[in-house]
Amino acid sequence: DIQMTQSPVSLSASVGDRITITCRASQGISNYLAWYQQKPGKVPKLLMYAASTLLSGVPSRFSGSGSGTEFALTISSLQPEDVATYYCQTYSSAPRTFGQGTKVEIK
Amino acid sequence: EVQLVESGGGLVKPGGSLRLSCEASGFTFSYAWMSWVRQAPGKGLEWVGRIKSTTDGGATDFAAPVKGRFTISRDDSKNTLFLQMDSLKAEDTALYYCTTGPATVPRGIWGQGTLVTVSS
User: Fold this and answer.
1) pLDDT mean over B33-56
2) Which among B44, B64, B111 has the least Cβ separation from residue A87?
3) pLDDT for the residue numbered B66
4) What are the pLDDT digits (tens) for B69-114?
5) How far apart are CA B110 and CA A55, in angstroms?
6) pLDDT above 90 as % of chain A
7) Ramachandran category for residue B68: left, alpha or beta (phi over 0 → left; psi -120 to 50 → alpha)
8) Can you tell me the distance from the alpha carbon of A57 to that of A48, in angstroms, rounded to the nearest whole number?
9) How far apart are CA B92 and CA B49, in angstroms?
10) Cβ-based neighbours of B88, under 8 Å, separated by 6 or more
């Protein structure tokens, strides 16, 4: 089974900062990688799929990159409403494993 | 409106069974590959299993912790997805979501979740 490892586990940054979350797959998954945002007490929200394709309505400050085993989610200018836990997920094959999550807070 | 609505959660004793349902609306359910994802209290997201569309063969796959105990099925005539959970354990306690996932159109649709508590 493919393992997904996110880093860091948590981060604290200031409003306006550029932040990057990384996700590493234990084997190559091409670009079959999705990113989710989950705010406290809320249902997860799909931000992007195919590693870098943003869903309609997702702010352009969010971007994704990577292919193979190394991926990244970047927020170019952190906003208060971005406080959430972010998860990566592979969907190249079953099981469609999630990363353990990265909790983003405002400093 | 595109929507998924789960039901069937509740309190069950260890070793017991429960059947969750997920009713879809607003999209062509019969074409959709559907997944179940769970989240234990205070923990991260855990993929449970998936069923392909009937036209794609309807095969199912499961995460290791639930394989052999959980079954996924679908009734396309009723736009409904099911998760049959048998031999339940305390560690199955979680909020269970159904979702279209990132690959099926419409992408990223999630229900509100249904809570399963396994306790004596």
Assistant:
1) 97
2) B44
3) 98
4) 999 999 999 999 999 999 999 999 999 999 999 999 899 999 999 9
5) 14
6) 98
7) left
8) 11
9) 13
10) B12, B13, B14, B15, B16, B17, B18, B69, B116, B118
Question: Could you give the CA distance from residue A48 to residue A73 in angstroms, rounded to a whole number?
Answer: 9
User: Chain A residue closest to B106 (CA)?
Assistant: A55
In chain A, beta strands by DSSP E: 4-7, 10-13, 19-25, 33-38, 45-49, 53-54, 62-67, 70-75, 84-90, 102-106
Q: Does B47 touch chain A (CB under 8 A)?
A: yes
Identify the closest residue of chain A to B99 by CA–CA distance: A44
Q: How many CB atoms lie within 10 A of CB A27?
A: 12
Among A37, A43, A53, the strongest candidate for a mutation testing the B interface, having the largest count of B CBs within 10 A, is A43
Structure-token pair, residue B31 = 């074409």
**pLDDT tens sequence across A88-104:** 999 999 899 999 999 99
The angle at the Cα of A86, spanning A67 to B104, to the nearest 5 degrees, equals: 60
Minimal-distance CA residue of chain A relative to B52: A94
pLDDT band at A37 (very low <50, low <70, confident <90, very high): very high
Amino acid (1-letter code) at residue B31: Y
* Tokens representing residue B76 in the block: 């396309």
